Amino acid sequence: MKKFLSLLSFATFAFAVNSFAQELRFGVMGAMNVANYSMSTDGLSFDTDSRIGFKAGIEMEIDAPFIYDGFYFDTGALISAKGAKMSTSVGDVNVDWTSRPYYLEIPMHIGYRYDLGSSGNVSLFGSFGPYVAVGMWGTDKVTMADESTKPDSFASDGLKRFDFGLGLRGGVRLFDHYRIFVGYDWGLINIAQDDDSTMNNRNFYVGASYIF
Q1: Which domains does the chain possess?
Q2: Which of 134, 211, 145, 138 is nearest to 179 (CA)?
Q3: Between 103 and which of 54, 70, 110, 133 could a Cys-Cys bridge form, CB atoms 3.0 to 4.6 Å apart?
Q4: Residue 41, CA distances (Å) to 45, 116, 162, 195, 197 in order
Q5: With a threshold of 0.85, does the pTM exceed it?
Q6: CA nearest 72: which of 130, 21, 23, 34?
């Protein structure tokens, strides 16, 4: 009896692993970031210009028919170049600042896709959920009076390394493997080291992916 129960348990586990593996798919993605900051100091807001960057890495999709047919989970490991640009003046001196941080970003979205037509070759999809990110490296560029310096983006007077926020993505799935999408990430954590300042990541992106 014990041997039978052990065999039954092993068979059940093997079936569960095989079923999960069939629903698990990996892929690669690349996107163009249009990144910016929401900034304020002592209650005064500052306007920043967008910085063009990129988002690239591996993706993972897990179908979730146990929720409802068409639902899935979307995650991955991405390198994302964010930041912003700002020009101001200190007295008669112009100051140009470009923030160039690079993050390891992990989205954790739940999504839904809707097939257009019976063939399933074209689908619309949308996903939403949190992301976590850790600053990996970055070098700012500060130009003042024709002299430039390049401080570390994550120095003690720079940015905090940890970021957390919410993301939204939507697009078209073609022939099961291809995705074309746009998305937006809202940083919810104040990443400024200065206690008198607030700084939140904002990022619009457009890209494509291939799921194997």
Answers
A1: 25-211 (2.40.160)
A2: 211
A3: 133
A4: 7, 48, 20, 9, 4
A5: yes
A6: 23
| pLDDT tens-digit readout, 104-150 | 999 999 999 999 988 889 999 999 999 999 999 999 999 988 889 99
Structure tokens at 163: 């970021």
Helix ranges (DSSP H) in the chain? 2-23
CB atoms inside a 10 Å sphere around CB 189: 16
CA dist 48 and 97 (Å) reads 10
Q: How far is CA 109 from CA 39, 52, 88, 92, 179, in A?
A: 26, 24, 38, 48, 15
Residues listed for the chain:
212
Both tokens of residue 204? 């619009």
- DSSP-derived 3-state class of residue 39: strand
- Residue 194, amino acid: D
In 46-150, alpha helices (H): none
Q: Which residues pair with 203 in a beta bridge?
A: 35, 185
Contact assessment for residue 157 and residue 193, using Cβ atoms and an 8 Å cutoff: yes
Going from the first residue of the chain to its last (212 residues), give the mean pLDDT of each consecutive group of 10, the final group possibly shorter: 45 43 85 96 85 98 94 97 89 88 98 92 97 97 90 94 98 97 98 91 98 96
- Going by C-beta distance under 8 Å and a sequence separation of 6 or more, which residues neighbour residue 180? 171, 172, 174, 207, 208
The burial of 208, by beta-carbon neighbours within 10 Å (0-12 exposed, 13-18 middle, 19 or more buried), is given as middle
